[in-house]
Amino acid sequence: xxxxxxxxxxxxxxxxxxxxxxxxxxxxxxxxxxxxxxxxxxxxxxxxxxxxxxxxxxxxxxxxxxxxxxxxxxxxxxxxxxxxxxxxxxxxxxxxxxxxxxxxxxxxxxxxxxxxxxxxxxxxxxxxxxxxxxxxxxxxxxxxxxxxxxxxxxxxxxxxxxxxxxxxxxxxxxxxxxxxxxxxxxx
Length: 187
Fold this sequence. Notes:
Layout: E1 16-17, E2 22-26, E3 31-36, E4 47-50, E5 63-74, E6 84-98, H1 99-109, H2 122-132, H3 137-160, H4 164-186
Antiparallel strand pairs: 1-2, 2-3, 3-4, 5-6
């Protein structure tokens, strides 16, 4: 039985008509019942479809929190040569600013860097890690070798992608052969 049958919900209790010839009646549970013109609401001719109400949505921003993180040595394989520098997990400082003031300051006082201005050479990274962050040469070499190992794994995985369909066929064949061998041994 239709739980919306006999319930007239709306501003004036009337049905809502659309230009496509469908009639909509809103139910108490927020769904709308739809039907083609010419059929009646009670009975099996109705179909409940969830419909979200349209309302004007807007987004606004008030304050932002700017956090500063310290830099550290990481084993990320993104650097083509030499050590990688990343952010540590703990933030050093945080300040709350009005977004308009922050954007105004950022535009006029700290222009965005692009392209090569964002990159550091491997020599600069190594010097920064040793002199500014006091990281030993052994730790840097260990992170570099780990990053190289990960890079080699990624290259190996990328090289195997074209062979993947063949691997699937070989695995299937292995399972079938093993099944046949088990059956012959069990007989």
